[in-house]
Amino acid sequence: MFTGIVEERGEVVAVEQLADAARVTIAGPLVTSDAKQGDSISVNGVCLTVVEHGGGSFTADVMRETLVRSGLAGIAAGDAVNLERAAAVGQRFGGHIVQGHVDGTGELVSRSPSEHWDVVRFGLPANLARYVVEKGSITVDGVSLTVVEVGPDWFTVSLIPETLRATTLGLREPGDRVNLEVDVIAKYVEKLAGPHLAAEEGDRR
Question: What predicted TM-score, i.e. pTM, was given to this entire model?
Fold first, then answer.
């Protein structure tokens, strides 16, 4: 589990394409400072397992399902990525519950810079729109953000200077693809309450 508070901006060192997967090596001195084989590290919001590490970098295998569902299919050597180690028991929980299981991808539609923050609009897949609400939480490329406005197929967030500096969101441009993870609590509520709401609707008819 993660919090969506990015610890460092790493860099992709190498990508090896395999038949139905990819092996990626990423430089991240902070997140690898105490890394062990089998540890989980979030890469642009995708939970990956460390299979090798050393010299300030780590290697992970990315299976086909993950490549299909996320933007990791398009990463290449030299790309910047957001990195976060799994949450430790007892630490302050600064973001929200993030699983590192990407629900889909969106597209950066526009950004409006101002003196103190950037307002950024992202395209939102139709199947995820019902989970996104104003002032709710969403994860974009592994960054925990608060939704400002939401429409039928879009949402906006405000990015403060620290977020722009410390994460890849400061580098993103219109047309760029981003990984999205909606609030897992909303999905559980829907699954648990859905049958009851449907039954009530049937009784009214």
Answer: 0.91
